[in-house]
Write a structure and sequence with these properties.
alpha+beta; lipopolysaccharide transport protein A fold; 6-stranded antiparallel sheet
């Protein structure tokens, strides 16, 4: 690595780290203030255990990787803009240009550093952040009682041969046990065959183990020997064979943006195989694919600031412009996600349009300001 590249990379990495730390401290402070109201809450499964300050700090610490994942692209933009604008202000970048640093070489250099940030963002969002986010929600569930979505929980579907199943899971507790389970079995013609209601259940390899079960079987009253069209059976424990895994239930109960890409993809396949709408999860899947690539968009957006006359406006003004660009990008990214879900847009278009649009804007600014001027 040449001396000037090592120097530029070092300056940008330090600036991005400083900006990320500042934003992280601000957001974690807001999280801390929001959690203080819950101090003193008694744990559901341990009446002697109360939600204390150490639990608050543990919960916020587990949320930190997800905050880093959310803030890293914006920190890349602001840090890179600040370094390049400062170098233009002190004529350092002019010296590099006279030493042979052309526009295309500068672009390739920044894209190389952007690729490093892409890998960091992907690793943070696809491995560390989902694991810590689930741990944080399970920790909070010990004091809130359970993880659920609304009063009715979530619904899943599965097809097994000639039978169709509709499964309702009310909630998941801190030990990853399912609560208030209902399973409805239908034939291909839509006739109900049986219902299963269980108070609790655990997911094991190859199926679910249900506790405190009541099974109702609906018989054809026209068949000989059937004295009653309804047979009710009760079990302390019942094994139910299914391909629905813990990850699928977690995706349905937890926020999809905090799940691993591979888990989202598997859940989308499950929904499609059972003729369920997967629009929301498909948009989130493509957002997770495109989001790390936004780091490349950010460094390209920052490059024109090295060619502006920073002496006339000041570095602070350009950093402020960079902040506004970053905020507008993330607002547009979220807005397209919601609109795409409501309007049933093609998922990859709804997720990728903001990145594509800002890439075109950044390349246009690079072409007009850097190459032509």
């Amino acid at each position: 690595m040449s001396t000037w590249r090592r120097y530029v990379y070092g300056e940008i990495l330090r600036a991005v780290g400083f900006v990320l730390l500042a934003f992280l401290a601000l957001f974690l402070f807001f999280d801390l203030v929001d959690e203080l109201k819950d101090i003193g809450r008694v744990a559901i499964d341990q009446p002697g255990l109360r939600y204390g300050l150490h639990h608050v700090l543990a919960y916020i610490g587990l949320q930190t990787p997800n905050r880093i994942y959310e803030l890293l692209p914006m920190a890349v933009l602001i840090g890179t803009v600040w370094v390049l604008a400062r170098m233009a202000n002190t004529s350092e970048y002019t010296i590099l240009r006279t030493s042979g640093l052309g526009p295309w070489r500068a672009l390739r250099t920044l894209l190389g550093l952007g690729a490093v940030f892409v890998v960091m963002t992907f690793a943070m969002g696809d491995y560390l952040a989902p694991w810590t986010a689930q741990k944080a929600q399970l920790l909070k569930a010990r004091f809130e009682g359970r993880i659920s979505q609304g009063a009715t929980g979530v619904w899943l579907k599965e097809r097994q041969g000639e039978r169709h199943f509709s499964i309702n899971v009310g909630a998941m507790n801190a030990d990853r046990e399912l609560e208030k389970i209902q399973i409805f079995e239908f034939t291909n013609d839509g006739a109900m065959v049986s219902t299963i209601r269980a108070q609790q259940g655990t997911i094991e390899n190859g199926g679910w183990v249900l506790q405190q079960v009541q099974r109702r079987e609906f018989q054809d009253s026209q068949l000989k020997g059937n004295t009653s069209p309804l047979i009710i059976k009760e079990f302390k424990q019942l094994a139910w064979t299914t391909d629905i895994t813990t990850e699928m239930v977690a995706v349905a109960l937890l926020r999809p943006e905090r799940m691993r890409t591979v888990d989202l993809f598997g859940y989308i396949q499950h929904l499609n195989n059972n003729n369920q709408s997967a629009q929301r999860y498909e948009i989130e899947f493509w957002r997770k694919v495109f989001y790390p690539l936004s780091c490349l968009v950010m460094v390209v957006l920052a490059l024109p600031f090295a060619y502006l006359h920073a002496r006339s406006g000041g570095v602070a003004g350009y950093v402020f412009i960079g902040v506004m660009i970053g905020i507008s990008f993330f607002l547009l990214n979220n807005m397209f996600g919601f609109i795409g879900n409501l309007r049933q847009w093609t998922p990859w278009i709804a997720a990728g349009v903001p990145s594509i649009l800002y890439s075109l804007v950044s390349l246009s600014a690079f072409g007009w300001l850097v190459l032509r001027r």
